């Protein structure tokens, strides 16, 4: 454990930020899985779920959770699945 006050505070903040990032990444994965399940089932709300998944990807990119190229690649793959 850290002895210096600033190091203790950074360690505490790292834990909080890790929890927040993990929750946001889990929400991203969940939205993508919901969309893919809807497409596989041929559901009518696939378009709305695509918009939600795309927004989740954009949010994860803007927060720095995923790289710009990964965000674009993921959205492209989802759009391709939506068209099929």
From TrEMBL:
<dbReference type="GO" id="GO:0003735">
    <property type="term" value="F:structural constituent of ribosome"/>
</dbReference>
<dbReference type="InterPro" id="IPR036510">
    <property type="entry name" value="Ribosomal_bS20_sf"/>
</dbReference>
<keyword id="KW-0694">RNA-binding</keyword>
<dbReference type="GO" id="GO:0015935">
    <property type="term" value="C:small ribosomal subunit"/>
</dbReference>
<keyword id="KW-0699">rRNA-binding</keyword>
<protein>
    <recommendedName>
        <fullName>Small ribosomal subunit protein bS20</fullName>
    </recommendedName>
</protein>
<dbReference type="Pfam" id="PF01649">
    <property type="entry name" value="Ribosomal_S20p"/>
</dbReference>
<dbReference type="GO" id="GO:0070181">
    <property type="term" value="F:small ribosomal subunit rRNA binding"/>
</dbReference>
<keyword id="KW-0687">Ribonucleoprotein</keyword>
<keyword id="KW-0689">Ribosomal protein</keyword>
<comment type="similarity">
    <text>Belongs to the bacterial ribosomal protein bS20 family.</text>
</comment>
<dbReference type="GO" id="GO:0006412">
    <property type="term" value="P:translation"/>
</dbReference>
<dbReference type="InterPro" id="IPR002583">
    <property type="entry name" value="Ribosomal_bS20"/>
</dbReference>
<comment type="function">
    <text>Binds directly to 16S ribosomal RNA.</text>
</comment>
<dbReference type="GO" id="GO:0005829">
    <property type="term" value="C:cytosol"/>
</dbReference>
